[in-house]
Amino acid sequence: RERQRANITVTQVVGGKEWEGAAFIAKPAVLGFTDFVVGETYTLKFTLTNISYSFNSFRPGELPENVRDFFVLTHAPPGRMSAGTSCVLTLTFTPKLNQDIDVTLPFTCATGPMEVPVRCTTKKVVLSLSAPALDFGGVVSGEASSLTLTITNGGALPSRYTLALEDESYTAGWACCVFSTFSTRNAFSVF
């Protein structure tokens, strides 16, 4: 226990094999909070499993100072854990700023330090088009042609958007109309 307080690590050798790498594995591997809203509280349970050759222990470290107040880590300290045993931890996140957070949660283990990534993302607009370009083919003067372009917002943040022609020189002498039908897929007909 005194070694752990002083962050002194030991080499773990079992059966002539020396343990190298992180002593615990987190499940899920990345602690993620997606599409969060400022002021709301989110909770995520995860497990740390001892994957080293023998007994090991861990102690949580502190997150970076700029985000430390947004998180609370709770768990029942398990003490020495034999190989293959797990411990459940709970990470509570209460965002105070509307910006993405990408940090690591540090742990001091008996065999060395390890980190678990924490990624928090705000709501975003994710627009996708059914076609990257509209090709009307060989349309001659006096004929009409129509194509459908479907614009889909796959993100959690609602958005308004407009459809504009990239280069007005292509429409000289042509009539171009855009009709929009607002539905869940927002389909536009261009002709």
Protein model, in words:
With 191 residues, this protein is mainly β. The protein has one helix and 14 strands; from the N terminus they run H-E-E-E-E-E-E-E-E-E-E-E-E-E-E. The strands form four sheets. A four-stranded antiparallel beta sheet has the order 3-5-8-7, with no helix packed on it. It is elongated, with a radius of gyration of 27 Å. The C terminus is likely disordered.
Topology:
Layout: H1 2-5, E1 13-14, E2 17-18, E3 24-27, E4 31-36, E5 42-50, E6 58-60, E7 71-75, E8 86-93, E9 101-109, E10 112-122, E11 127-129, E12 147-153, E13 178-181, E14 187-190
Please give the count of helices: 1
Helical amount: under 10%
- Give, in order, the helices and strands: HEEEEEEEEEEEEEE
The average pLDDT value, as a whole number, equals 80
Helix vs. strand class: mainly beta
User: What is the spatial order of strands in the main beta sheet?
Assistant: 3-5-8-7
Alpha-carbon Rg, integer: 27 Å
First-last Cα distance: 75 Å
Q: What general outline do the C-alpha atoms trace? A: elongated
Low-confidence stretches: 171-175, 177-191
The total strand number stands at 14
What percentage of the residues does DSSP assign to strands (E)? 35-45%
Question: Major sheet, described briefly?
Answer: 4 strands, antiparallel
Q: Quick summary of this structure?
A:
The chain is mainly beta. It contains 1 helix and 14 strands. A hairpin with a 5-residue loop joins strand 13 (178-181) and strand 14.
